């Protein structure tokens, strides 16, 4: 039972490079999220998708784009990476029947030099 | 917008000590409240949740939390901690039923000394 799978787990980028973080869930959940975790700041919501075909900005969306490709997949794209985007990124999913219970992926550690 | 405050940034305890981690939120309406735990090197997992009913909720691994509406608090407790409880603990709030968007606190790092 895979749950929420994120790739890659580690990535080093140079300033200005682009990359996409991939996320897939196999629990048939409607909602998916991207969070970033920074020391002393907890988790902050970047974008979320309440259902296939819809996306909304969270608390810190600047510098990111997302795509809800289908019900299973939700990708996060950095078009021009900046050092301030060095962080650990977590994808999560949930179902309305269990409101607030998020299932998290194992995280992607991104370093921007 | 709602916010969550966790005033204890790092707590160090000896095994068998009692634990209480503070969590306060700012929102006057109906909320759903959660505690998540992140063990070293792992992803976040749900520890316990409160939607309605009995304000004292029990979670996994002997943890419990009490919702005190008048104090806007949802403190996490455990009578006797173990070394394996070493982790980071996050309080989170969702505004109302059906809204899965969570706002997290900044987290409390708990270190248990054997």
Describe the protein in words.
The complex is a heterodimer of chains A (113) and B (114). Chain A is mainly β. Helices cover 0% and strands 51% of the residues of chain A. In chain A, strands 2, 4, 5, 6, 9, 10 and 11 form a seven-stranded mixed sheet that branches. Chain A has a four-stranded antiparallel sheet with strand order 1-3-8-7, with no helix packed on it. In chain A, strand 9 and strand 10 (103-104) form a beta hairpin. The radius of gyration of chain A is 13 Å and the shape is globular. The N and C termini of chain A lie far apart (35 Å). The mean pLDDT of chain A is 92. Chain B is an all-beta fold and 114 residues long. Chain B is 0% helix and 50% strand. Chain B has no helices and twelve strands. Chain B has strands at 3-5, 10-14, 19-21, 24-26, 32-38, 45-50, 56-58, 64-68, 73-78, 87-94, 103-104, 108-113. In chain B, strands 2, 5, 6, 10, 11 and 12 form a six-stranded mixed sheet that branches. A four-stranded antiparallel sheet of chain B has the order 3-9-8-7, with no helix packed on it. A two-stranded antiparallel sheet of chain B has the order 1-4. In chain B, a hairpin with an 8-residue loop joins strand 10 and strand 11. The radius of gyration of chain B is 13 Å and the shape is globular. Chain B starts with a strand and ends with a strand. The mean pLDDT of chain B is 91. Classes of the chains: A mainly beta (113), B mainly beta (114). Chains A and B meet through strand 4, strand 5 and strand 9 of A and strand 5, strand 6, strand 10 and strand 11 of B.
